[in-house]
Known about the structure:
Structural class: alpha/beta
Distance between the termini: 25 Å
Strand content: 15-25%
Amino acid sequence: MNEPETIHTILEQAKTIAVVGLSNTPGRPSFQVSRYMQQHGYRIVPVNPAIPEALGEKSYKDLESALAGAGKIDLVNVFRASEFVPEIVEEAIRLHLPALWLQEGVCDETAARRAESNGIQVVMDRCIYREHAGLEPHSRAGSSCPV
């Protein structure tokens, strides 16, 4: 978990990112980070039952319906409180999703280990924006999240 090789592999191989907890409010971190990822070529699939859409994409109530709608999910990016992680991990395991990214401040060591033991690559307590920006040759290495 959190090995530089794992982070690099996930960011290089992922094309479609399901964002659990994505808000459609432009000032929210989930919106800003997801918009950045979308602007860098990733397809964003919102997972939030409280909104109809975000970033021009239909929002889904859960990962299962997001997978059915998107056809493929390469990465689950979680912007939910840590208490919701075990439930998200169980759904990711059931759906055989390949990778899970728990945003900065989102931590559940037990759930993360369970995901890993079921073949899911895991990054925990890291900002996907910051990690991606650090890989970009033209970016400011070490830049902070856009919020």
